[in-house]
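Shall we go through a protein fold together, starting from nothing but its sequence? Please make up or recall a protein chain and show it to me in full. Go ahead whenever you are ready, and we will take it from there.
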Amino acid sequence: MCRVLKIARAGYYAWLHEPESSRTIEDKRLLQLIRSSYDASYGIYGYRRITLDLKELGDACGPNRVLKIMKNNGITAVRGIRNIKAMVKAVLRLCHPTI
């Protein structure tokens, strides 16, 4: 495999046995908290509200970090469905009667 990828075998094994960084360990811990908050909201909360939930729990981190963790793990908020008929009626009410 190393020959096909054209990398040194020693470099590959050094990378393979490298310990996890503290950032990776912290991201895994935050992922568990994010999943619990996401499940508690039935998938409605996005990264902004989950960031606020984490701050309430005392685990403050930035919204971009929460967004990155959610994206990497395929966690997305449920989006609402727009009511097109209501939108058209609202626009027609705002239009001048001669139009």
Q: What stands out?
A: The chain has one domain: 21-94. The chain has a mean pLDDT of 86. The two ends are 70 Å apart (CA to CA). Helices lie at 2-5, 9-16, 22-40, 47-57, 63-72, 84-94.
